[in-house]
Amino acid sequence: MKKVIPLLFLLSLLLVLLVSIHLKLVQKLPEDGKFGFLRNAENLNLEGLEDTGATWFRPNFGYFVWGSMQKDSDSPIDFTKTDEVVRDAEKRGLRLLITVFPFADWDQKNKGLGCKVTDNDTGLPERKGDFETPGLPYYRCNPNNWGLYEKWLVAVVDRYDGDGKNDMSGLQFPVLHYEIGNEPDLMKDAVSGVGTVYFIGTPAEYAELLQKSYTAIKSENSKVQVLVAAPAGVQHSFADFWDKVFAIPDIGDFFDIGNMHCLSAPSEDSNDPVALSAEDLNVTFYKKLLTSHDIVKPIWVTEAENVQGSNVQENVQRLKESVSNALKNGAQKIFFTGASFANDPMRYTSEILLEERSYYKDIIYSYK
Questions:
Q1: Percent of the chain at pLDDT above 70?
Q2: What's the number of domains the chain is made of?
Q3: CATH number of the domain encompassing residue 191
Q4: Mind listing the pLDDT tens digit for each residue in 118-167?
Q5: CA distances from 63 to 86, 189, 342 (A)
Q6: CA 152 – CA 76 distance, rounded (Å)
Q7: Which of 43, 50, 326, 347 could form a disulfide with 281 if both were Cys (CB 3.0 to 4.6 A apart)?
Q8: What's the confidence (pLDDT) of residue 25?
Q9: Phi-psi category of residue 281: left, alpha or beta, with phi > 0 → left and psi -120 to 50 → alpha
Q10: Which residues lie closer than 8 Å to 310 by C-beta, 6 or more apart?
């Protein structure tokens, strides 16, 4: 008498087979190099970051934003634009560091005008003809409905983690690094009122966002690594904000990787404290900040530049030395902003990066 294999057993085998096939289709991650760029995702085709030898990409802000992906509490999450970002990075063999923002106007309007930025905030989307640049919503406090925010965040992580469940169709490389917001310590210029406010809240409120986001992400996939947002610089106001964040008990349990920014010093004076700190892209400053609270973490510099004056060769050499010092002092990854070595007022345009791309290539390939 022939054995009859139960239908349930056959279905189980089929399920295992399908999952294994999917996981094989999700290929091995690209090279885990030391360098990447922070740039606008819509310019990836033009800029060819991969030609510099960079292996990481941190998309500029406006893509992975709660309110941009979900129009109200009852609407489905729209992954159209974020899928494009992931696919474009995959085509170029670039790993992704994704910055997520917990902002949705429809969720925060009941919090009042204290959570709303003004019309001159440079982080708002800009319309140019039929094209609208990515940006952040008006309301930028912590979520009102934490449950809905966490549900959105889990859905984002789930779609791109490459675990074979609910993944984006055709996903090639898993996305395993997320950063919770950007420069929550940054305020607008007190005189001109110009600038971008990336977060409206206290250090304790940012810590709450970090804790809840970390917990939600890890509940979906424990392999995903979470970066704390970076200080905007080493100035006292920024240091004071982060001193209060890191003083919160056990806050070090809610991020995997430390994060620092180094933007160009406002002075050409080599004795300026900001310029001196930039000699290693602020890594020593940040390491001391962490250790003063008994926190030890890997350190990534996710915005890196060091331009002083307009002499291109001097600025290239300065950045080379800053990169060398940063790596020597403990930085594991460095993401360049592509700032003009000539200190051009336009600063971050694609045209400037294309003209100066060879300088970055020389720096990156010296570490290959």
A1: 91
A2: 1
A3: 3.20.20.80
A4: 999 999 998 777 777 899 999 999 999 999 999 999 999 999 999 999 99
A5: 11, 25, 30
A6: 10
A7: 326
A8: 46
A9: left
A10: 342, 343
Residue 82 within a domain: yes
Place of tokens 């003009």: 340
- Radius of gyration, CA atoms only, the chain: 22
**Domain membership flag for residue 8:** no
Q: Are 246 and 290 in contact (CB under 8 A)?
A: yes
The Cα 117–Cα 314 span in angstroms is 38
Whole domain around residue 248: which residue ranges?
29-365
In the sheet that holds 177-180, the strands lie side by side as 98-100, 177-180, 225-228
Spatial contact of 230 and 304, defined as CB atoms under 8 Å apart:
no
pLDDT band for 265, please (50, 70, 90 cuts). confident
Question: Where do the DSSP E strands lie in the chain?
Answer: 35-39, 56-59, 95-96, 98-100, 127-128, 131-132, 177-180, 225-228, 258-262, 299-304, 331-336
Is residue 18 one of the residues assigned to a domain?
no
Buried b (16+ CB within 10 A) or exposed e, 259-288: bbbbbbbeeeeeeeebbebbbbbbbbbbbe
- Let me know the angle formed at the C-alpha of 317 by 311 and 319, rounded to the nearest 5 degrees: 100
